[in-house]
Specification:
eight-stranded parallel barrel; 33% helix; alpha/beta; 303 residues; TIM Barrel
């Protein structure tokens, strides 16, 4: 009932751990699988190790979350070692998120990805707070064209491009499709900031961060809906403020084939996967659908 496909990638259910949340070690991957996830997206892995930004890096705003972690990760070489040593014990697909500051860095990372231990690649072209990475590259059509073309040519794995609502979405998506991308992940966090009114200064050490959680969910629905209108045959992973089964179903009705679960884990822990899955099953039964795939993009037929 809940099985879905993302191109050639088969998932037992449409819930995917979103990048940036827990996805950095095999021991965590096992916990996430046991919690009920259909797939895992790793934290964004860079060419060299990154420590990330100093504290404070996270703020709970009440209506969402603001973070500027700075892409902390062990680097591609060490991360591949970690995966090779224990990935056989993980039975759900692993999507590796990668990020670089140049086209050449993306290529060098991709060349070190072991296709025996990874099932797909997500190109992080939309991180809003890591200087020189993400959205600074992803908003340049020529750079996106080179990155996607080079990665697609160098791998047999499905390639997804992670985009943001603050980018020239349709223009960048068109370029990605022309260069052979498998599908999309939308949306990334939205660049934002918070100021401590008593200290009278920005709260985050990096000043700017990425806004996630319920505050951006309607934006995520919009971006998924727009991309599906343009590319209904390209699988979309909808991400942004999913905290309930209703949120997940909403993204699927908008056109997502799968849904990323991220910030809500901070308050509800990994049990959120089971809660959302159970709600989705009940919804499908009550609405008399045999499979979740029957409602992908259905909202487009009702307008």
């Amino acid at each position: 009932m809940l099985q879905v496909k993302l191109g050639e990638l088969k998932l037992k259910n449409p819930l995917i751990l979103a990048s940036g949340i827990l996805g950095i070690s095999v021991s965590l991957f096992k916990r996430i699988e046991r919690a009920g996830a259909g797939a895992i997206t790793t934290k964004t892995i860079t060419l060299k190790p990154r420590k990330g930004y100093p504290n404070p890096v996270f703020v709970d705003l009440g209506y969402g979350y603001l973070n500027a972690m700075g892409l902390p990760n062990p680097g591609i070489e060490e991360f591949m070692k970690e995966l090779r040593e224990g990935v056989d014990s993980v039975d759900i697909p692993i999507i590796i998120s990668i990020g670089g500051s140049t086209v050449e860095e993306f290529v060098q990372i991709a060349e070190q990805i072991d296709e025996e231990v990874v099932d797909a690649i997500e190109l992080n072209l939309s991180c809003p707070h890591a200087r020189g990475y993400g959205i600074e590259l992803g908003s340049d059509p020529k750079v996106v064209s080179k990155i996607v073309k080079n990665i697609v040519e160098r791998t047999n794995l499905p390639v997804f491009v992670k985009l943001s609502a603050t980018m020239p979405l349709k223009e960048i998506a068109k370029i990605a499709v022309e260069n052979g991308v498998t599908g999309f992940t939308v949306t990334n966090t939205i660049k934002a900031m918070a100021i401590d009114v008593w200290a009278k200064k920005p709260i985050l050490s990096n000043i700017y961060g990425g806004l996630s959680g319920p505050a951006i969910h309607p934006i995520a629905v919009r971006t998924v809906y727009e991309l599906y209108e343009e590319y209904p045959d390209k699988p979309i992973i909808g991400v942004g403020g999913v905290s309930s089964w209703e949120d997940a179903i909403e993204l699927i009705l908008a056109g997502a084939s799968a849904v990323g679960i991220g910030s809500i884990i901070a308050s509800k822990d990994l049990k959120i996967f089971r809660e959302i899955l159970e709600g989705m099953r009940k919804y499908l039964l009550e609405e008399e659908f045999k499979n979740i795939s029957e409602i992908i993009g259905l909202a487009h037929e009702r307008t």
